[in-house]
Structures are given as C-alpha cells and as structure tokens.
Design a protein that fits this description.
Helices cover 48% and strands 6% of the residues. It is an alpha/beta fold. A hairpin with a 2-residue loop joins strand 6 (160-161) and strand 7 (164-165). The structure holds flavin-adenine dinucleotide and ligand DLZ. Keywords: Lyase.
C-alpha cells in the first residue's frame, strides 16, 4: 500500500522527519494550499504569498529529486489539510499517512481525528524534544529561560570551552541594549526580485486575500533554501557584527537596523536553526563578529525560540485563551492601520502593514506595551500578532504574546509585566522627536499616552503586583507622588481609554 507523506507549509525542510520515514520509490508526498490554513486568522498577504511560493518551489525540488508529489493549489478548491489527505488517499489508494507533528494544537487535533490513520513523528528540527523540555521544567518553581538556555548551550556545544561558556560568561546582554545609533551601516536584508513562481502566487494572493490587512507591494522575501542561505551569509558578514549592540534600538527611518530577518525562513523550514547558529559561531571564531553579538543571537535561537516552544506544548491548547489580568478592551483601530497621534505606534504598525515584519522591541515595547497598558483582551492581541507577521505560527507567537507581552499566563514566562512609560521608547529610539505628544510631559493634552497609561496600569493592578519584588520601586515612586498629580494621571488615563472605547484616535 502507498503511504502519504504530509508536508505542511512551515515544514519545508529536506531533513523533515516525515520525509526521512518515507520510501521515495512508492510513497506520495502531499502538499496543499488550503483555505482553512490561509484563513484561520486574516494573515498578512505577504505571509501567504511567501508560504505559497516557498511551498511550490519546495514541491518542485522534491519532484526534481525523484519524489512523487501530489500538490493542490488554492484554486483547486480543497479547503482543509485533512480534506487534502482524504482526497489523496482515495486517488493513490493509500491507507496511512506519515506526518511531522504540526506546530499548532488545532492542526494536531485535526490530524488525530482524520479518518485515515496518521502516524505523527516528532519535529526534530528543534533542539529540545517535548520530553527534554518537560524533563527540564518538571519540579522547577520558576521556568526561567536563562537556565534552560545554558542546557541548550551544553547540548549543542555552541560557544562552549569544554563545559564552560566561551569567554567565561553565559550571557553578554550588558553589552547590548545600546540606544538608537545616529546612522546604520548595513543596507538591510537581501531582497529578491519575484520570479515566475512568485509572480503567479502574488496574483493569486492579491485576488483572494487583497482585502486582508497588509500590502503585497514590493515583495522581496527569499522563497527557497538557496536564497535564504544567500541572505543569511549576507547578514552574517554585514549585519551580525553590530546586531548585539543595537538589537533593542528603534529608528524612525530604518525598519531593520542590524536584525537578522531570519525568523520567517527558519520557522518555515528554509533555514535550519543550528545551521544559522553555526554560521554565527564561525563568524565569531574568525574574529568577524564580537562575542556579545554572537552570544546574543545564539541565545535568541537556542534559548528563547526553543523555550517558547516548550512552554506552548507544555501548557496545552487552552494557553491561548488565558487572561490573567482580565483585560477586555477591543483592539484599537490603530493596529489595523487606523489613525493615531503616537509616532512610535504609527511607525510600528505602518512597517508591519508594509513588510509583515517588526523587530522584537517594536513588538514588545511599542505595540505589545500599548495593548497591555490599555487593557486589551489578550485573545484579540494574540490573533493580531498571529495574522500580521510573516514569521508567526501559534507555537512561537502565543507564548510571546499571551505570556511575555500581555502577562496573561499569570507569570509563567515573564517574572513581571513588560510595561514602560514613554521614557523607554525615548531612550531607545528617535521616534519621540517627531511625535505629536511630548514624552517629557507627564500630564495634560501633550502628555505621551504611555506616561499616563503606565501609572494607570500599575494603579489598577496594585493588588496583583504590589508584592512583586521587581516592581516595588515602581510602586514606591507612584506612592510618593503628590496625591493631586496621581488623581490627574488616573483621570487623564481614563479619558484616553474612553477615547479608545469610542473608536477615536489617540
Ligand atoms: P532577530 O532579532 O535577528 O533574532 C534572531 C532570531 O531569534 C529570530 O529570527 C527568532 O528565530 C529568534 N528569536 C528571537 N527572539 C525570540 C523570541 N522571543 N521567541 C522566539 N524566537 C525568538 N517570533 C517568531 O518567530 N514568530 C512570532 O510570531 C513572534 N511573535 C512575537 C510577538 C511578540 C509580542 C514578541 C515580543 C516577540 C515575538 N517574536 C516572534 C520574537 C521576535 O520578535 C521575532 O523572532 C523577531 O523579531 C524576528 O525577527 P528577526 O528574524 O529579524 O530576529
Ligand atoms: C500559515 C499557513 C498558510 C497561510 N497556509 C498554509 C497552507 O495553505 N497549507 C499548509 O500546509 N500550511 C499553511 N500554513 C502553515 C500552517 O498553518 C502551519 O503548518 C500550522 O499553523 C502549524 O504550524
């Protein structure tokens, strides 16, 4: 009997466990562009175009390598992954499917319920298996990423001197976090001119998803492994050396600074995470990149990326519904491109709309910070992030949003909420100079909304956070403030929230 080998849109890797388990001579690879996957959130059109183009090119590569591939395009009208499997099972007389475990509980459940038997293989493109992560997490009072990361360094041997970290320290973050530089000496990610496959997909996506939030114009993503590797080599040479120094900075006229722009390629399977880390380690060993850049970057991949996946699978399907702070406000219109007077919000959303990309600090300390301070329903925040970024899949997006950014998981990931006043954004960016508000002004019509909502948030969540040892200073400052000033801040914060509720721009 023929076995079907399922390859999903974010499983475009030569060494995929499902492909390794297959018999190329007899088995049939199934790949499908389907309405359910393209529509379970209103994905950014560039994200859909990237995945469809990369899927088509990966299928062509598999065929050239001797595989039989049953590929369904969106116009073929198959609506779901299980529908594609059932149709292929009938067509090829198959009674069994081998699949690599998908990255979302939703799809795992659908495969488990599929009338054709599906044999799920572990996704071993990750360094830590579910068992490894659970072994590390079980019995710990707090699941802090730093300790998990050290285990991953030991396991991979990356930047290790025997059993000790290279350079003597595990973490060089104190050399990172520099404020925005005056100018950026890196031209940004390598841009690829759309070829025929990409052009065809852009037309399809424009027709079918043109009304989704996000622009399809000026599509430049790599869409196959070769291009993604070219981009990686380019970034390692030109971007990596200053990645660490400026990884938290934001600039009004530069969207990428020294960031890798590799998340979308790694998450879709075009780049292997260890391959990326080894390239970075080699640059550091050759003296072409400083230790703070190399260690900082490797920590993001083998630390944060692996850690958030571990949390997602450990916490289970209800994780995305958690709402520890009981926030209920609707997501403000600015997130969908509506008007705003806040320069940093406008810039972060504008580039998200145009590029399907924003870097970590824009996601955490601008759009995430604002949603948290404004008390937005975390499920709506989660859906927005899942939709708008080209690198977003639930396993990685949800822990970052529900956990790290919105503190909706009750503190599993973050030991305190990531909230800040306008001062942080002013320190790390040049946005405030061009803003309609004045960051130094604390009350009144010119006051930066981050300043007002920061204290408003702390005040309304006092019962929960007052005893948090990392937040004592903040409450100390608030409590020492003149009572009249506190009342003004709360009243003006209320007014901002009322404007958001009325759908008026802030
Ligand atoms: P770089 O800044 O160059 O970092 C290198 C790589 O490290 C990234 O490509 C990514 O693979 C990894 N990485 C860094 N931080 C994290 C992290 N916190 N979690 C997981 N991997 C990390 N990342 C996603 O891949 N998909 C998402 O949907 C996603 N949603 C996020 C939502 C919020 C609210 C926040 C705060 C972070 C989110 N991140 C997400 C993490 C991070 O912002 C992106 O990985 C990064 O911005 C991607 O850009 P880059 O490739 O230029 O990364
Ligand atoms: C994100 C996405 C989109 C937009 N479309 C498809 C698709 O048509 N076919 C497919 O196989 N995968 C797609 N994906 C990726 C899946 O949604 C992804 O595999 C799951 O979210 C699990 O991570």
């Amino acid at each position: 009997m023929v076995t079907l080998i399922l390859v999903l849109g974010d499983q475009l890797s030569d060494g995929l466990s499902a492909l390794r388990a297959a018999d190329k001579a007899h088995d049939v690879v199934v790949m499908a562009e389907v309405a359910d996957e393209a529509g379970y959130v209103p994905h950014h059109p560039k994200k859909i175009a990237f995945l469809f183009a990369a899927m088509r090119k990966f299928a062509a590569r598999l065929r050239a390598d001797g595989w039989t591939v049953d590929y369904t395009t969106l116009p073929d009208g198959v609506t779901s992954i299980t529908g594609a499997l059932l149709a292929a099972a009938e067509k090829h007389g198959a009674d069994r499917v081998i699949a690599t475990e998908p990255g979302e509980h939703r799809l795992i459940a659908a495969l488990r319920d599929c009338p054709v038997t599906v044999d799920l293989r572990p996704d071993d493109r990750f360094i830590a298996s579910h068992k490894d992560f659970d072994g590390w997490a079980t019995g710990r009072k707090a699941l802090r990423m730093e300790y998990f990361y050290r285990d991953m360094r030991r396991k991979t041997g990356l930047m290790m001197d025997g059993d000790q970290p290279a350079g003597g320290q595990w973490n060089y973050d104190h050399d990172n976090r520099k404020p925005a530089p005056g100018s950026v000496d890196y031209s940004g990610p390598m841009r690829f001119t759309p070829d025929d496959t990409v052009q065809e997909v852009l037309t399809l996506v424009g027709q079918r998803f043109g009304n989704n939030f996000g622009s399809l114009d000026d599509f430049w993503f790599a869409t196959d492994q070769g291009q993604a590797r070219q981009h990686l080599a380019h970034w390692v040479t030109h971007g990596l050396p200053l990645f660490g120094d400026f990884q938290d900075a934001m600039l009004d006229d530069n969207r990428f600074l020294y960031h890798g722009i590799v998340g979308l390629y790694i998450n879709a399977g075009l780049l292997d995470p260890l391959e990326v880390c080894r390239a970075v380690e080699a640059a550091w060993q050759a003296g072409d990149a400083p230790i703070n850049a190399a260690e900082g970057f490797i920590r993001q991949i083998i630390g944060w990326r692996e850690y958030v996946r571990g949390i997602y699978f450990r916490e289970g399907p209800d994780y995305v519904t958690r709402n520890g702070l009981k926030h209920t406000r609707d997501l403000p219109g600015v997130y969908w491109g509506g008007p705003s007077f806040m320069r940093c919000m406008k810039k972060a959303v504008e580039q998200t709309q145009e590029e399907a990309y924003a870097h970590h600090i824009q996601r955490l300390m601008v759009t995430g910070n604002f949603a948290l301070l404004a008390g937005v329903d975390p499920a709506q925040v989660h859906e927005w992030y899942l939709a708008v970024y080209a690198d977003a899949y639930e396993w990685v997006e949800a822990p970052n949003v529900i956990g790290m950014s919105q503190f909706a998981d009750g503190g599993i990931i973050a030991s305190k909420p990531y909230v800040s006043s306008g001062n942080y954004i002013h320190k790390m960016s040049d946005h405030c100079g061009a803003c309609a508000y004045k960051v130094a002004v604390k009350t009144g019509k010119d006051a930066c909304p981050f300043n007002l909502l920061y204290w408003h948030f702390l005040d309304r969540h006092r019962t929960l956070f007052k005893g948090n040892p990392r937040m004592g200073n903040m409450y100390g400052t608030w409590d020492r403030m003149d009572e009249g000033k506190r009342a003004t801040i709360i009243a003006e914060g209320d007014a901002i929230l009322a404007r958001l509720d009325a759908g008026d721009p802030v």
